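fwd from M.: "can u put these together and see what the complex looks like"

so here's what she sent:
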Amino acid sequence: MLYITIEALVKIAVLIAGVMGAAAYLVLVERWMAAWVQDRLGPNRVGVPLTKIRLFGLGQPIADGGKLFFKAEYTPGHVDKIAYILAPLVVFVFALVAFAIVPFGSILPPAWLASWGIKEPIHFIVAPGVDAALIYFLVVGGVAVIGVVLGGWASNNKYSLFGSLRSAAQLLSYELPLGLALLGVALIGGSLRLDRLILAQAEAGVWNVFVQPLGFVVFCVAAFAEATRLPFDLPESEQELVGGYHTEYFGVKLMLFLVSEYLHMIAAAFLMVILFLGGWHFWGLTGSGEAVPWYLALLRLIVLVGKVGAVILFFMLVRWTWLRFRYDQLMGLGWKVMIPLGVINLLATAVWLEFGREAALRWGWPPALSMAVWGWLTFFVSAAVFLLWDPIAEDNRPLRGNSLSMNKLGC
Amino acid sequence: MKPDDAKIAWIKEPPLGWAGRSYLLLFAQGVTTTLRHFFSRKLTVQSPEERHEIPDPLIYRGVHRLNRDEQGRVKCVACFLCATTCPAHCIDILAAESPWPDREKYPQSFTIDLLRCIFCGMCEEACPVGAIELTSLYDLAGKSREEMVFNKQKLLSVFDRTKDAEPPPVVKQYTLSLSSNNM
């Protein structure tokens, strides 16, 4: 019992330190990306404090964090004090708690730790064996919305309120396609546990992105929206809402909000890698079974973290590539495109599981092949249908939908 | 104004084609652009170590200077054209009787408040004798407001610093004294 507690505490400490450090340095990476895309150099001056050593600007996050820490702690007079202080804590805690079920590697065998009296294999996951991991993730992601709404409302500022209302509508709308995309993967993998889902992909040798392209697209879009990254960053669009729901925040409380945004992005990247990009699996490199020697376990850790890093770099590149959606386009994309596509994906997967697999086996096709063919067929057919139908074009904005005046002027 | 007012001209958005509707082709285009800039040459000048390269120092509008003539005297004839034309009212001239025979007045004091100056260069354009000019010195900083108010001596020293790199213009010397004006 004591051993389990110590193991869990060590893992929690390592995970929090790693994730928080990653969030701090992702701010730097994001600034570098922004600069390079804009033909600039980015922060490259801050290095070791009190010396002239620059280290390519790697000291920047420490300086940024220190600055926020040493700001005067002050609560504006017009806010609801309890909610104002509670909101960043809620957002931050639930962003961090989501990592409890995220595996950051596979299983480390006890062999090389045996001299310390450790006989159990070490799972690279804080809470191993949570059977409802995906549901837990969705629930925790949903609670984060409460913190955002609370912060916007407590600030007693119209920009904050607009930001939080937008955030509430956006996050709740995109929870649905996110959940539908997750369900498709859970059906194939036959489990709601993330480590099992990785194992299923590794044993088949086929990542889910190849057999469920439609689910991947839906998940990708929903994950961007859930992380409120750029094409969907309406809750805090600086050009319209000053700072969105955290307009009235500063110092450590603002830092909690900003760090949680990066935590959401890291969590989304982890989930994307685990569910669709094969987790720790890489062909001919990491093996596919559950029990592996320690060097393969460490290699799997590196592969997983590397994939997550690549996905995060993609997130950041997209930020400088795509424009922000208008709000009705955002809602239209969510409700008219992504949710129907998610339902189609789920139905297609269920149909394949119920009928297609066995029919294909009778023809001598391996399950992975028939699933891939079926998945890409679904993808292209539904893409063609949605392109011809173009559901977003029929929006309900008053200016354009006013057919009376349109007809009068002969437009 | 109501939405069905006859004065409002309703314009329809141009419909998107299937490529635009799918977003994917436009996305590929956008990513190509960002990636090209990502790997392209960076334009940043690392300022204290590297100096910004000024293409033509003669037309750059930096710190002012007061030019000297061949004998080392200040060229200014205290005609107040620059002070009059200055939109920021930052030039302050105190004229006095000239000790030299070829002109009537000279500036006893000539101060420019560089904190008010907007570096528009209109003083340079207005000057009939080519006495005031804007140089290519751009890194201008001071530790107090007083330090940023440049007096005649300081403006002349700017000329001494920059005269080799930026030679003063050759301007026909007007004869401004009435006595030598044979009209």
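replying to her w this: Confidence is low (pLDDT under 50) at residues 404-411 of chain A.
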